[in-house]
Amino acid sequence: MTVMTTQPPLPLIPTGATEIGAAAAMIEDHDGGRVFVHGNLSFAWDTGDIAGRRFAAVSLMRIKAATQVQVAAAFGTSPLTVWRWAQALSEAGVSALVPQRTGPRRGSKLTTEVIATIARLRGQGLSLRVIGERVAVSEASVRRALSDTEPEKSGSAAGSDASPEPQTESEAETESVAAEVGPGPVSKGQQVPVLADPVDRDGERVLAAFGLIPYAAPVFAACARAPLAGLMLALPGLSATGLLETAHAGYGATFPNGFYSLDTMLCEAVFRALLGESRAEGATRIDPVALGRVLGLDRAPEVKTIRRKIGFLAEAGRAGDWITAMAIVHAAARPEQTAVLYVDGHVRAYQGTRKVAKTHVPRLKFPAPATVETWIADAGGDPILVVPAEPAASLASELRRLIPDLRAVVGDGRAVLVGFDRGGWSPGLFADLHAAGFDTLTWRKGTIDDIDQDKFAEHTHTDEAGRTHTFTLADTDTELDIGDRPRAGGRFAMRQISVADPARSRQMHILTTRRDLTPGEIRWRMGARWRQENYFRYARMHLHLDSHDTYRASDDDPTRMVPNPAKKPAYQRVENARRGLRRAEIDRDTALLSAHSPTPGTSTILTNRALAEINTDVHAAEAALDAATETHRAIPARLPLSQVHPGQQVLDTETKLIHHAIRIAAFNTAQSLTRAITTDTGYARADDEAHTLIRTALAGSGDIIPEPATDTLHIRLDPLPAPRHTAAIDELCQLLNDTHTRYPGTTLTLHYSTKPHR
User: Fold this and answer.
1) Neighbouring residues of 732: CB distance < 8 A, sequence distance ≥ 6
2) Bridge partner list, 507
3) Are 211 and 276 a contacting pair, CB within 8 Å?
4) I need a labelling partner for 251 at 20 to 30 A (CA). Which of 171, 579, 625, 651 fits?
5) Do 427 and 522 share a domain, yes or no?
6) What is the mean pLDDT of residues 702-718?
7) What CA–CA distances, in Å, run from 582 to 62, 618, 622?
């Protein structure tokens, strides 16, 4: 018996042919092209016969001599294009493979007059959407018309059939970059080198080392495709936060001479925070030369320089005043946002070796060494003020302490709604806030009788984004006991908005002193308090909010009065004695009932001795309660810290507050850009993608082109991956140009634009 084995035929590949899978090969030269299948010539075409070449590609796929991917790779196209050729061949035959003449390059509506009108309106600073409405075309058509009018388009011969001379890769890159510079402050035809070296600053560094110059001013070299050029978008928003001007007012006279100025250090810190590296150590993860180009220097400062400069600011001890000054600038610039203030405490756990006071950490759900801060945010959840709190201080006590600071921020005589959670519950505090001109907004603490269902009705409120919210609410009044305060009857009247919660079969109640707002707005404002919690979560993820920027510590005030830890167990003994007395009284009443109600047919005589025996346990329990109460009263409620926790320390707050000021400025800067994307550019998916889009744009590259003759610094950003993202950033650039912001420390006015998608 003969065993036959089957094997695929050996491919015969002609000399110089390119393999197309295991069975086919192709040769293309000046005579045209030829395809061999198993060594046999199967398809051929002449030079310029595009239809024949496409027919050969589709036929190879049809006879299964090669896969669609292999054919696409061999013929220098995409698999999708090969599929389209196959569909066209099946539907209309070989004639469908002949390339068709393309139509006009611009829409029929884009006449010469319309294009001229579009260019004129764009020169007036109008947005693409407004221009499209004026000339009755789409935004895409407006963008295409503007792209066609740029010098980079007009310089080419659109109708010429002559082929350009071959260029090397470097020559093509240089020419494209020179063309991309386009209009603006750069002269026509000027070439900007890619990743140009920064201006040499070695001489200034030597002078700064000896203290002979106050600082090195920013000097920009023309550079194309500079990494991190997108950070320049943050400068108008950073200027609005007041970080730089208030820093000069507080630290300008004391900041020492050196190569890096106060403006440079703060801009560098904000840029790092926007890139997600707010800690000083984050400077090691960012290219110092790339960041230096954005700062107008040869390189960005190193970690040791950053720490040393921050240390100079901390030694001045003015961080609290600095943040307060920034809050005043914020309130003056955004009065509608600061009409509502949210106050909340933030606990930052400590994992070091210092002897730091313990407090309850909500995220851990148990006490641990930690520091506590009180944060104030505006109606949008943007942070404006932070104050270190004393260890174990309640939110109510911190609110009472912050009343003068809040009044200094918002100004005299202005009514402001202050919202906080149940941690600030204190009827006396509500009265104090009302006396200081503030309105209260908080959840009611404790249990009360439910409101009658017939008092509930549907209420709506439309927020600033145009969304309508519907709630089932009851609007009533209530009075709270404020103790022996010098007010009528020791009572304080407040408005109560009750919320029906069918899911939990209970009612929740909001208390406020504001009478002019609708119940729907009161409920929505109370729920909007979570915007501040959202900031804490965002800042922990992107701004390292809970990081310890310094581990320096100092001794706590030994004379500070703190709660006596012996008071709590003494009170627990009082409660145990009180429960023992109740049990003894129950046993006594049971014995007396049994003696007064003997079984039928029997009689009982109660003597004084019998009654005394029944009351013996009660008398003993009363004596134990009196003794426990006297012991509890004798223990002082508060003691000096030196007696309770000797050697306790507190972490350095100055350095932390300085970093908080930088984080506040960075977050508010990003928020201002995000809101501009949301409200002013018409970006369709702004609610879902605005934050991500801004982070991507800030980390993007672009051209940095100074023009000393016009005192302009032109920033031309490279296009983002998606055209719709680039269009949104282009609209943002036009808005930022209207601010006429100057680069800090220079006379250069920033001008922004974007490169079109090719």
Assistant:
1) 233, 673, 676, 677, 680, 681, 697, 752
2) 500
3) no
4) 651
5) yes
6) 93
7) 96, 9, 10
Residues 463 and 432 in one domain: yes
Does residue 474 share a domain with residue 505? yes
C-alpha 689/C-alpha 729 separation (Å) is: 12
Determine the Cα–Cα distance for residues 663 and 660; give it in Å rounded to an integer. 5
Instruction: Give me the helices (H) in 466-513, please.
Output: none
The predicted-structure confidence for 243-276, as pLDDT tens digits, reads as follows: 999 999 999 888 999 999 999 999 999 999 999 9
- Which residues lie closer than 8 Å to 233 by C-beta, 6 or more apart? 673, 697, 698, 715, 717, 729, 732, 733, 736, 752
pLDDT band at 195 (very low <50, low <70, confident <90, very high): confident
Is residue 520, in this structure, part of any structural domain at all?
yes
Tell me how many domains the chain contains: 4
Judge if 726 and 619 occupy the same domain. Answer: no
Residue with tokens 């090397």: 168
Q: Does 673 reside within a domain?
A: yes
Please tell me whether residue 506 adopts helix, strand or coil conformation: strand
Residues 425 and 508 in one domain: yes
- pLDDT band at 168; cut points 50, 70, 90: very low
| Residues 478, 444: Cα–Cα separation, whole Å | 11
Q: Which domain holds residue 622?
A: 566-596+605-643
Q: How far is CA 741 from CA 188, 235, 552, 747, in A?
A: 25, 7, 38, 10
**pLDDT tens per residue, range 536-546:** 999 999 999 98
Both 222 and 283 in one domain: the answer is yes
On whether the pTM is more than 0.85, the answer is: no
74 occurs within a structural domain:
yes
Judgement on whether residues 665 and 625 belong to the same structural domain of the protein: no
Q: What percent of the chain has pLDDT over 70?
A: 89
CA–centroid distance for 753 within its chain: 24
Buried b (16+ CB within 10 A) or exposed e, 35-51: bbbbbeebbbbeeeeeb
Give 172's pLDDT tier (boundaries 50, 70, 90): very low
Mean pLDDT of 604-621: 84
Do 703 and 749 fall within a single domain? yes
| Domain-located, residue 30 | yes
| C-alpha to C-alpha distance for 703 and 195, rounded to whole angstroms | 9
What tokens appear for 241 in the block? 């936060």
